[in-house]
Design brief:
- This protein is α+β, with helices and mostly antiparallel strands.
- 50% of the residues lie in helices and 21% in strands.
- Helix 1 runs antiparallel to helix 4.
- About 6% of the residues have low confidence.
Length: 260
């Protein structure tokens, strides 16, 4: 547990002693102004009140380590001040030093002083609580190829065809085309339809699969060549002889992925 701020350094101890004396004298002066008691009685009351506050504020440090929310701190401050008033009542009234009516007349004044003191101490304690070390969790951005490796990459696609389920290895795929909420999968063994959107499928494809058009993804390992077809228009030729149109964005992505 951290060293109490009152005992952390000699300077802190002296500051707390001066604060105690200042609180005692201020309380005595206010009681004198509030009720016109004799000065010696006001001084004794001031020092006793300051002593009780000092004890409560001392242990209030340990509360501040665990109470983080402002409403809870406010409630704890009120409870501590009620404890202070109870102790004062037992010391002053039950011993006959001060009449009960006179003490009750002092309660609002003592309550205000105590709450102000609690607020000041909480603010000071907040500056003394060491900050928890920050664990750096942000990682530098990775290139798209590397981030794709971190995803759950599928090694095959399963397609239901009537009563049959076809398991298609990814290396056998030539290209994939979107068709609404379905995708058409073209392989060496034929064409298959799968109920899945292009976006969700693309998220789990290996890095060899490149989107060359809004509706087309090709397996770059099946790529034969790229042809310029008109101004800023490109066609991608696959090993099975299929020619597919590539958008300008898709062509740039293809060049980037293949380091062309």
């Amino acid at each position: 547990m951290d060293t109490h701020p009152f005992r952390k350094t000699i300077l802190h101890g002296l500051a707390c002693l001066l604060l105690f004396l200042g609180t005692a004298l201020l309380t005595a002066f206010l009681i004198r102004w509030y009720q016109e008691f004799p000065w010696n009685q006001c001084l004794w009351q001031g020092f006793i009140n300051a002593a009780i506050w000092s004890i409560l504020f001392y242990y209030g440090w340990y509360l501040s380590l665990y109470i983080k929310y402002l409403p809870a701190k406010a409630v704890s401050g009120i409870l501590l001040e009620c404890l202070h008033l109870t102790v004062c009542f037992l010391l002053f009234v039950t011993t006959g030093w001060i009449e009960e009516a006179a003490f009750l007349y002092q309660v609002p004044l003592l309550f205000v002083i105590g709450m102000l003191g609690w607020i000041i101490m909480l603010q000071w304690y907040a500056t003394q609580i060491p900050e928890e070390p920050v664990v750096q969790t942000d990682l530098p951005a990775l290139p798209e190829e590397e981030t794709k490796d971190l995803k759950e990459v599928i090694q095959h696609i399963s397609v239901k065809d009537g009563a049959h389920i076809h398991i298609i290895p990814m290396e056998e795929l030539f290209f994939i085309q979107a068709c609404g909420d379905y995708v058409n999968i073209f392989t060496a063994g034929g064409q298959f339809i799968k109920e899945q959107t292009m976006k969700s499928l693309e998220a789990s494809l290996p890095v060899t699969f490149i989107r060359i058009h809004r509706s087309t993804i090709i397996n770059s390992s099946q790529l034969s060549r790229i042809e310029l077809f008109g101004k800023e228009s490109y066609h991608v030729l696959l090993k099975n002889g299929t020619s597919l149109k590539a958008s300008l964005t898709g062509y740039k992505l293809l060049k980037s992925r293949l380091n062309l």
